[in-house]
Amino acid sequence: MPFDPANPDPFQNSPDASENHQSEPASLESKSNQPSEGLSDTELMYLHPSSLFFDLLAHGRTYLVPIVFGLFGAANGNTYFLLISGIFFIPAVGMSVFRYMTLRYRIEADHLIVNQGLVFRKTRTVPVSRIQNIDLVQSVLHRMLGVAEVKIETASGTEPEAVLRVLSMAQMEALRKAIFARTGRNDNDVGTASEFASCGEAVASSGNSLDAPFAEVGREQQPTALTSPRDTTQLVHSISSTQLMMAGLASNRGLIMLSILIGSYFQLVDDNAQKSIFDFFDQWFPKVESIVWFVGLIIASVIVGLICLRLLGIGWYLLRFFGYRLERRGDDLRISCGLFTKVSATVPRKRIQLISIHRSLIMRWLGLASIRVETAGGSGELQNATESVSKRWFVPVISESQVNELIGMLRPGLSWDESALDFKPVAELALTRLRRISVVVSVALIVIGLIASRPFGFLPGLVAFPLLWWWATKKARSMRYARTEQGVVYRSGILNQKISITFFEKIQTLSIYQSPFDRRWKMARLIVDTAAAGPAGHFIAVPYLDESFVQQEFQTLREMTGENQPVFG
Amino acid sequence: MNEIPAWSRQDNSESANAQQPPVAPLASSLVDGEFHTVDPRSIQADMITSLIFSGVLSLLILAGCIVAFFYFGLVWQLFAILAAGLVLIFGMFCLAFLWPRIEFNRLKYRIDREGLEIRRGVVWRHQITIPLGRVQHADVSQGPIQRMFGIGTLMVHTAGTQNASVGLEGLEHQHAVAIRDFIVHQRKGQDAV
Questions:
Q1: Mutate which of B31, B113, B162, B191 to test chain A, going by most A C-beta atoms within 10 A?
Q2: pLDDT at A210 exceeding the cut of 80
Q3: Closest to B128 (Cβ–Cβ): which among A351, A509, A567?
Q4: Distance between CA atoms of residues A513 and B162, nearest Å
Q5: Which has the closest alpha carbon to A434: A491, A480, A477, A473?
Q6: Sheet order of strands, A424-425 included
Q7: What is the DSSP letter of A537?
Q8: DSSP track, A54-101
Q9: Per the CB < 8 Å rule, is A511 touching B114?
Q10: Phi and psi dihedrals of A465, rounded to 5?
């Protein structure tokens, strides 16, 4: 089924595309997997021509230093340096051209097939049903050209299954549609071939306008004939700038901004300039004349520093999450945000393994919370922007009153009311046990202190004791476990409170650990393992539970996980 | 002339599903819900492994003592070190003899409708359930010493993170293979996460 010839991209309809079909090794396996619902294969598709430039930007970074060095030398009159530049630059360009020319992708028989290379041919076949997310990143440059970097993720591996750098917005939407139509995620997206073509056409007309915010692209390209109540994009949550600023105020993100600033300062400013800046500070700062001045100066600079850190935190939040929108379309959740670099990520509802609500101390004061979700796959460390938005920063900030509603939306049939949960506290003796630990640690600190320095060495231990005692009390009270009709809930944390929710059909294994100490106190640790890659910084392992309760709960959970099979395909 | 080898027949057949071995009779004998110990021969196998380990470690300790002798000469400290080393070696060999049996007694497994459950641990106790529907794949491996005793290790992999693969070592090899086949056939493609 060809694309509409009106499609502005010249590469999509290249006449020789159909001939290349025969050379694809992957077409062998299409016999067993018949395309569903009469969807025919798409043609071979190529990257957007501007890929050349972006590929060079991404891969050429390693050669940047020698190239700049060479150009610098050439500017000083030594033409041999141009040669050095060329030695690094020409192969880099060549590689980019090669990558651009040889990469093509298509969807055939429920598989996304990406071909790369000419001599050493690499064919990647991704079953469409396994695709977890289709994410995009759009920097300012991307947006000016109307293109985006597209990442296809599955549950396996640490990196995206395929990175298409870059596609035009029209191509991207066509790909997204083709994939989603095959997974049947949006019920009404599953259409006939002609409907599919008309989708592509609609994209061609709307997708290329430069500044079309791509949250809306999806809506515009819906052919009117297909529209039904379930098909429309529904705004679930948006964050105002004020709220973002409050979140920035509450966070420690300023430290990250500070480190970036310091890093770029040392990279960009040379030694002489640095020296002159220090000289400037030397003159500007009042000379230390008395101890009062000195102390005052230190306190003042600490306060100024803290304020600056908070301001930087606000800046970071605005930069990352400006214009945040969480939208729902059928069973897909789409996030888009970003001030300069726009990020759009799709999280299929069914793939959510774990939901967790985080509340730091300051956030609690401000009546705010943040929500993370975990899908399977990807690495524990969040390397790229889309991954970090869809996982770590699913909802970066939300006011406390909206939390219940939003969580309830993340899963069909889930009604979430935290206060109504029947939390099971840890064993009664846990408090005693934790307090005993605090006593032992304090005594050890006192003894070590006395050995280290004779008369006053006991002081640190003595100071630590009430703090540790407080920590023990708080910790024992903070840990809670609950089982709902759909899954398991675990709450923990003293300053940073976290609540995690997972569901019976998402539980992979159940286990109980018991250390010798646990046995002495008749306690055990209940561990619920899910496929969540980096479990939102909150692994469901409930310690200090009653031994008998854990055994009983283990049996119940076994039955529940056995009954609730993962049925999504 | 018409004799087609079994492997080639299976390879050429369009529907491999039709040739899958029947699992029903196996299932009834495996899924009894009772706790079982692994094969007792695993005690000897473990013993040999830990004896080899202890032997290598003892040689290292003795070598250390010899080096110390050439370095310091014959002084009383050397005798102290030697004595400590010998006590260590003795303790190690005692453990190598006793520990496999203690461990064997604590290692139990069962298969029931809900899944495979394994209980183990002498000092740190561990109990784990892998629901049969969550198994991604399972395999049986056999080391050289295990092969001498006809035992093997069953590894069950899930999509989880912390307990993504769970091992059950010391099963009789045939039995391990039977369990693996049973588990793999149970999952019926419910592998989505």
A1: B162
A2: no
A3: A509
A4: 13
A5: A473
A6: A395-399, A368-375, A352-359, A497-503, A487-492, A480-483, A424-425
A7: T
A8: HHHHHHGGGGHHHHHHHHHHHHTT-THHHHHHHHHHHHHHHHHHHHHH
A9: no
A10: -55, -55
DSSP string computed for A154-203: ESSSSS-SEEEEEEEHHHHHHHHHHHHHHHT-SGGG---HHHHHHHHHHH
Chain B residues bordering chain A (beta-carbon distance below 8 Å): 113-115, 117, 121, 123-134, 158-164, 166, 189-193
Q: Are the beta carbons of B138 and B168 closer than 8 angstroms?
A: no
Q: What is the DSSP letter of A40?
A: P
For an interface test with B, the pick among A158, A500, A508, A512 (most B C-beta atoms closer than 10 Å) comes out as: A508
Strands A234-238, A325-329: pairing is: antiparallel
Query: Do the Cβ atoms of B129 and A511 come within 8 Å?
Result: yes
CA distance linking residue A508 with residue B177, whole number of Å: 22
DSSP assigned state of A392 = I
Q: Are A180 and A332 in contact (CB under 8 A)?
A: yes
Looking at residue B26, what is its pLDDT? Answer: 47
Contact A509 B163 (CB under 8 A): yes
Q: Tokens standing for A310?
A: 């908070």
Residue A267: Cβ within 10 Å count: 8
**pTM of structure:** 0.70
pLDDT tens digit sequence for A482-525: 999 889 999 999 999 999 999 998 899 999 999 999 999 999 99
Query: Do B163 and A511 lie within an 8 Å CB cutoff?
Result: yes
Lowest mean pLDDT among A135-139, A408-412, A509-513, B134-138: A135-139
Strands B151-158 and B135-141: antiparallel
The answer to whether the Cβ–Cβ distance between A514 and B162 falls below 8 Å is no
Q: Give the model confidence (pLDDT) of B43-77 as tens digits.
A: 999 999 999 999 999 999 889 888 888 887 777 77
Distance CA A155, CA B159 (A): 9
Helical ranges in A251-358 per DSSP H? 253-268, 271-284, 291-321
What is the least distance, in Å, from the CA of B14 to any CA of chain A?
9
* A533 → chain B, closest CA residue: B161
Closest CA of chain A from B121, distance in Å: 9
For residue B159, list chain A residues with Cβ-Cβ distance below 8 A.
155, 376, 508, 531
Read off φ and ψ for residue A423, nearest 5 degrees: -75, 140
Confidence check: pLDDT of A54 > 90: no
Chain B positions in Cβ-Cβ contact with residue A532 (cut-off 8 Å): 161
A507/A490 Cα distance (integer angstroms): 14
